[in-house]
Every structure is written in C-alpha cells, then in structure tokens.
Amino acid sequence: MNCQLARSILASLQSDPTQNAVARQHVLTCPTCRVQIDQLVCGLLAPAADEITCADCREQLSDYYEAVNAGGEIPTPLAPLAQHLARCPYCAEELQMLQATMTAWATGALPNLTQEPKFDLSFLHPAPIPVSIWVQNQVTKVRELFIEIRIHLGATLAAFGDLPSALTPTALPVLQRSEGEAAGMQVLILPAPAANLSMQLAVGPVVAKKAALVVKLNQADTGQPLANLRLMLYTAERRMLAGSTSDAEGSIVFRDLALGRYIIQVRTPEPYEIHLVLAEK
Amino acid sequence: MPDLDLELYQGCYASSTAAYQALGRYLLQAAQYHLATYPHLLADAEDCVQEALINIYQALQSGRGPNQPAKFRSWCTAIVIFRVKDLKRKPGNRNPLISLDQPTDGADNALFESIVDDKTSDPGTVIPGAQMLVDFLLQIRDHPALSTSERTVIWEGYMNGVTTAQLAEQLGKTPNAITLLRKHGLDKLRNDKALMAQLQEIRQRMGE
After folding, report:
1. pTM, rounded to two decimals
2. What is the CATH number of the domain that holds A197?
3. Which terminus, N or C, of chain B has the lesser number of Cβ atoms within 10 Å?
4. Does residue B196 register a pLDDT over 80?
5. CB pair distance less than 8 Å for B29 and A44
C-alpha cells in the first residue's frame, strides 16, 4: 500500500476495518507518513497568527531564501513563513539545505559529475498524436470487477472499446455545444453491488487536450438517482483535485480534465473507486 | 554567473533542450551534494532530477515560475531539494552509515526523528512510539468539535501536503477562508485540554 492510499483510507471516517488496519500498519512503518504526522503535531503545539503548513512553506521557500540573501527586512507577505520556519524543524532543514547548495554552487564546491547524465527531455516537445482515452476501473472492495477500458474519442462520438462482455455501453444523444449539433455519446454503466450503487460514466469531447467527465450515480437495486453523495477527484498520487456532491439527478461533472491519471472516489460506507487513465495514444 | 543564469532562465522558458540539459546537470550536482553520505541513494539522484525537471517545465508552462531570472536558480534548487528530502525519508532509505549519536541534520530535533533509529526504519518494523502518534492522529480525525471543512483542510494540508492555494481551488473558497478554517480547526483541537495533555505525554515519553 502506498502512502497516499493509506492516508486516504485513514482519512475516511467510515472506512472498512480491514483496510483501515492495513493502512494503519503502513503508517506505523512508513517514515514519510510519520513525518507528515509530526508536521501536524508541530503545527498544533506552536500556535501562529497565520497557520501555514509545510506545503505552503515549500511554495515560498526560495522567495524567503532570496529575501534573506538580499539582506534587510523580510517582506510582510513572507512574515508567516518566518514564523513557520522558526517552529518547524523540517522546513528549517530544507532552508538550510537550500542555503548550503547555493553557497556550494557559488564557491564551486558542488561535486563534479563522473559522467554526463541522460535525462528524458521528451516532455519538452510532445509529438502531435491522435487523442484517445484509457479508462481503468478498479473497485476497491470487489476485485473481480477489475477491468481496463479504452475510450475512442472522435469529433462527435465517444466510444468505449475492449469491454468485458458483462459491460455494455449505452448510446445516448448528447448536445455538443461547440458545434451546436446533437452528437452521440456513449455511457458506460459500472455496477458496484457492494456499495449498492451503479456509476454511469461518460467522457465529453476533448477540447485543447482537456475533457469533461460526467458521472451519474444510481441506486443499484431501485435505479433511483443518488443525490447528495460526495465524490472526490484525486490524481493517481492521491492528491485531491476536486470534491463535489451529486445533484438531484445523481450527476456530477468534472470539467477541463487534462490528460493524466485520476481516481474518482465515491464516499459511501463501502469505498468505491474508479481509476481513470486519460492518455494520448 | 548572472549572465549564465539569464541564459538558463530564458532557455528554460523557451523549452530549449540544451537549457534543460544544463539545468539537469546542475540539479544533479546539487542532489549528489546532499546524498554524499547516502551512497546507496546516489543512483536515485538522477530520478529526483528527472522529476524536478518535469515539475519545473510544468510550472513554467502554467506561469507559476519566478518572475526574475536572478531567482530562477534558487527556485529550481528548492524543487530538487524537496525531492531529495522526500527520497531520504522513504522507508529503508535512512543512512546506514550514520549512528544514532551523530546528529546529521536539523530535523533530528523533531519528534518523529527522535523515535526512529537505523534499525527500526526498515520497512515493516513498527516503532512503539509511532503507535501513539497514529492513535493521536485518529483522535484528531474523529474529533467531534471539527467541522467537515475544518477536518478536510487540516488533513489535506498536513497529511497530504496540499497547499492553501490548491485547497482554495478545490473547495471553491478563497485562500483566506482556507487559512481561517485551518486556524479555527487547530484552535478547537488546542482547546481540548485532554488531547493536548495526551500530546505532551507522547512528547515526554519520546524524549521530546
């Protein structure tokens, strides 16, 4: 179990006891997770006027370094950072490391490289290639439902491909606003019996390499829309991107999703997750 | 030197391969500088730099880079240092060459560092002190005084490293509102005398 998943499970007030135990075991043995807890402890023990976190501190650390390096007074916007650095040994150490590196660079004390490094810089010039979307569905509790789905996106039609026989997409007419014409869109119904829900998934047209993801939640046994259910959108690294609540129709739309890996989590007593890979091919 | 930095800054903004290669070379030196006493992690330094280069590229592309060439190097350096620091913290990556008696860095005063030694940092080994910390964390999670928003802001901010700006965007609130939620939430926890007394006890048992 990775850190993000463990913390995500622990964060849930209603998580499964077995998963909870596994997550707890991970945190007990993982130095990275324990540092995160300690950072919270540091924050609790030292009240500050502006409670910034270590993540906020990282965002501005180089600005702070530059301000200190320039001499004179620390600018007002960086005052909370100074307070944080005074009470957080982790961030203070990172500032120390930054100062040491910059000094070593200025004095020529950085180590010489024994060989020329070979970095993969292909991200600088991404090739223009056709867009397709891959969807990987993993239901945390119901492992037999692990499937991988590919979605082909055309100008007017989004179609799921390579589906297991148990899952059949349904074609529904959807108005494509960019062209002002009715267009077809396929909806995939993903059952989650353990959570007594079924999730309908549709992907909107890709514009400027960004897509809209439409999620609709229905009760599995009655087919009634599930309103007021909380859905969270995470990156593959379990960093929360968005959280939303289903409307009266049980629908939620995540717009402007860049290509990448995502996890949608439905906050029900039985955790239900869809793992998406939106990728170019 | 400043002219070289200007060249690097402009080259990276222009997505120049040569500029990124030069930047990567410098960042690798910086990473190796901090991994000198971690010979078993030197091979991972290049991965840290690779990740840092991608982060730098993404930040520049989305206009989140420094606005002055003179600040570019320290900004990039900070990014790779965070990667190196995170690498050192991963299970099993603590320095096997350094004994407990030998202070290695500023973080050794911290609560967590005080309860970890080289033997117990092996993956899979539970440290008795950590048990108390995790119990304490779960008490915070379940604390009845916290509202859902306060709980989310505290948990995501501290446990998942989500910045105030990111949380503001995700929750549809202003950064000031997020800061207030965090402050109110932490104050509520601090006002729980029993909880704070327990925290003090944990610290004492772990030797501060």
Report:
1. 0.61
2. 2.60.40.10
3. N
4. yes
5. no
